[in-house]
Amino acid sequence: MSIVLTNITKNFGKFAALNNIDLEIPEGELVALLGPSGCGKTTLLRIIAGLEQADSGRVVLNGEDKTEQHVSHRGIGFVFQHYALFRHMTVFDNIAFGLRVKPKKHRPSEADIAKKVHALLELVQLDWLHDRFPDQLSGGQRQRIALARALAVEPDVLLLDEPFGALDASVRKDLRQWLRNLHHELNVTSIFVTHDQEEAMEVASQVVVLNHGRIEQQGAPSDIYDHPANAFVSRFIGQTNIFAPDDHDAIWLQTSGLPVNDQNGKIAHVRPHDIEVEKASDEASAHAVLKDWQHLGALIRIELVKNAAHGESATVYAEMPNEQFKRLHLHRGDKVSLRIRNAHWFH
Amino acid sequence: MEAAFVGDWVLDAAVPALDGVLAQLGEGDIRKLIFSTQDLGRWDSLLMTELIRLVNHGANQGIEVDTSSLPEGIQGLLQLVYAIPEPIGARRKATRVSWLEVLGASGLRLFDDVQAIIVFIGETALGLWALMRAKARFRTVDLWTNIQDCGPSALPIITLISLLAGLILAFVGAVQLALFGAEIYIADMVGLGMMREMGSLMTGIIMTGRTGAAFAAQLGTMQVNSEIDALKTMGFKPMEFLVLPRILALIFIMPLLCLYADLMGIVGGALVTVNFFEVSLLQYLNRTADAVHLKDFFIGIVKCGVFGVLIALSGCLRGMQCGRSASDVGDAATSAVVTGIVFIVVADSLITVICNRLGI
Fold first, then answer.
1. In this structure, are residues A24 and A1 in contact, taking their beta carbons and an 8 Å threshold?
2. Residue B89 pLDDT level (bands cut at 50, 70, 90)
3. Are B320 and B215 in contact (CB under 8 A)?
4. B-proximal residues of A, 116-135, CB under 8 Å
5. Do the chains contact at B227 and A51, CB–CB below 8 Å?
6. Regions of chain A short of the pLDDT cut 50
7. What is the pLDDT of residue B139?
8. Does residue B320 share a domain with residue B275?
9. How confident is the model at residue B243 (pLDDT cuts 50, 70, 90)?
10. Which of chain B's residues have a Cβ under 8 Å away from the Cβ of A84?
């Protein structure tokens, strides 16, 4: 089911949480609403769900205007950050709950409910837990049960509010992959809210970047990473080195292989992996001093201090594969030369 | 001028007062202050404090202060002291609020509160209407759990409080009545007092603290955990699903608790009268039966039913109004108790006045 939002505005007192949001989500996508905390992403999700009313604007689901409709008539499933499982019910009852309380006309028989619940439990790979209470489950298990509960009523849209926010890192990694696979299997239009850019890039097929109640950019993860629309998106997605050549950096950037003059922007954003690091052959070619490095698995993140002679001294981050770093035989305090391969320019 | 530090400058050591030096700095045309520390013994933070006083004073007078002759350790510490400027705005003045502003704010808050209460009563009424048409949706098991939670589990505390209330009534009455040798009338006093007033009031106040607060905390926690939102997305009306069973449970259980409290009060009165005065238990019970009429009994029961509704309303209202952070739950519970007790006392006075006017 497609989702179309037009002109959504929401104020809390004088604080504008959402500002004229227009958003179109085609059917079957898995979309991430990404932004720093307080940017209005959860509010937007709650407005789509109908848990919150927008001050103005319309919510159209599958071509039907649902702005005035109650949350229960919108055909959505909602997964909350803190699971929101009913504590006094078993896992089975939690999932069956949405079905058992349907009006008599639409209510399936108890046998059908049991069949469906077990099917859902198998889908989330937790069938063996059906008679436990939520308190007896781990965080990751609870969130999967919450997802099963949301799916029980066969929603047209699945909304997830920071679904992995309360989980620890390794569980989160597993669940991301799992959610992606689940989405492939079910193909139900899904929106999830996150402040974790890595999570958004890994799971979503479309990413919507929000800031201060506005949409900064919408697109596929690779688009957003490779062609950020503005400085905020570039800073927010992945790590970036920021240079402002009109200060002292111009010469430094020139010698590092980045032409400064014929660019349409004042500020250069350079991704760490776009910086090549070599051992400096002589004093003249030394651009920076190696300060420290960190292992990020297959990559090494190198902390460099810019040579003060070429402008202000500041830390620059570069990344390179582990193997390459070993070959260079670099030590702390070594002088290195840099080559910047690519930069994004912003005003 | 040269200031020399001599001897041990440690806490608890007798050190010369700096006031003399400070005064000297003030007068005359001293342009530069240097320090000598050849004879300095052990030192600690005391030396630093005094040194900073000197340096600051010198700087205030416009005198050049040369610290280069000080030992390295002291110089380092001094540098640390002056490295961080005093944060601006750290000493915030308490903003003064005029009484008019306070009055206005509390007026607005009262208005909002009254509005919320009226809306809540309206929604509850709609829920009850749905219940009467058999359209309200809640789980019967929830109703029974609530009845168990606020009924039988409350018996021990009700026993204790009511028994003591009866005892106190009896003692207070006995002091006066014994003057006339009319101890037998303690039975009248305890019987009527408990039945008409104390039984229901005590039950009401206990249940506000016990159940009203619990309701607010339960619903508040559900609000914080987004369980209420989850119910909404599944098509439930929280008013029907959560509030109705609680109100019904209290309406059902409160009169019964009141009945029990009345009985315990009379037992308490009897304990005092039979043990301390020459009245037999049978006499006491006979006297009570003569003094208390059915209408007195019913007034107490009806009152308690009303209190039940009020307690449930205030508890659920505050629970549903609860914010989304954990600390809001505590606030909700507190405010439920306050609201509940205010409601109960106001309702009690109203009912008493009405009964008085009607002559019952």
1. no
2. low
3. no
4. none
5. no
6. none
7. 83
8. yes
9. very high
10. 225-227, 229-230
pLDDT tens for B163-172 read: 999 999 999 9
Contact at CB, A80 and B232, closer than 8 angstroms? no
B19 plus B114 within the same structural domain: no
Q: Is there a single domain that holds both residue B32 and residue B156?
A: no
pLDDT of residue B268: 93
Of the partner residues B137, B227, B232, the one whose CB lies closest to the CB of residue A51: B232
pLDDT above 70 as % of chain B: 95
Averaged confidence pLDDT in chain B: 87
Q: Are residues B128 and B162 in the same domain?
A: yes
pTM confidence score: 0.74
Give how many domains chain B has, as a whole number: 2
Contacts of B236 in chain A (CB under 8 A): 72, 101
For residue A163, give the nearest of A152, A147, A148, A151 by alpha carbon.
A147
Domain that holds residue B227: 101-358
User: Residue B120 falls within a domain, yes or no?
Assistant: yes
Partners of residue A76 in chain B, C-beta under 8 Å: 233
| C-alpha to C-alpha distances, A100 to A77, A151, B235, B295, nearest whole angstrom | 16, 14, 12, 46
Binary contact (B233, A97; C-beta < 8 A): no
Last residue of a domain, one of B83, B113, B136: B83
What integer pLDDT is reported at residue B147 of this predicted model?
93
- In terms of Cβ atoms closer than 10 Å to its own Cβ (0-12, 13-18, 19+), residue B262 is buried
Q: CB–CB of A84 and B235 under 8 A?
A: no
Q: Which pLDDT score, from 0 to 100, does residue A337 have? A: 83
Specify whether B56 is located in the same domain as B173: no
Query: Residue B90: inside a domain, yes or no?
Result: no
Over residues B130-138, mean pLDDT: 85
Q: Mark whether B155 and B272 lie in a shared domain.
A: yes
Burial of B45 (0-12, 13-18, 19+ CB in 10 A): exposed
Please state the rounded mean pLDDT for residues B251-262: 94
Q: Do both B52 and B168 map to the same domain?
A: no
Residues B161 and B223 in one domain: yes
Cα separation of B177 and B354, whole Å? 29
Parallel, antiparallel, or unpaired: how do β-strands B40-43 and B7-9 relate? parallel
Q: Tell me whether residue B197 is in a domain.
A: yes
For chain A, helix (H) and strand (E) counts, in that order, are 10, 18
Chain A residue with minimum CA distance to B226: A84
pLDDT at B31 over 80: no
Residue of A97, A105, A106, A107 to mutate, interface with B, max B Cβ within 10 Å = A97
Residue B88 lies in a domain: no
Among the three residues B22, B52, B83, which one is the final residue of a domain in this structure? B83
The whole-angstrom separation of Cα A325 and Cα A278 is 10
Given CB atoms, is A156 within the 8 Å cutoff of chain B? no
Per-residue model confidence as pLDDT tens digits over B277-288? 888 999 999 999
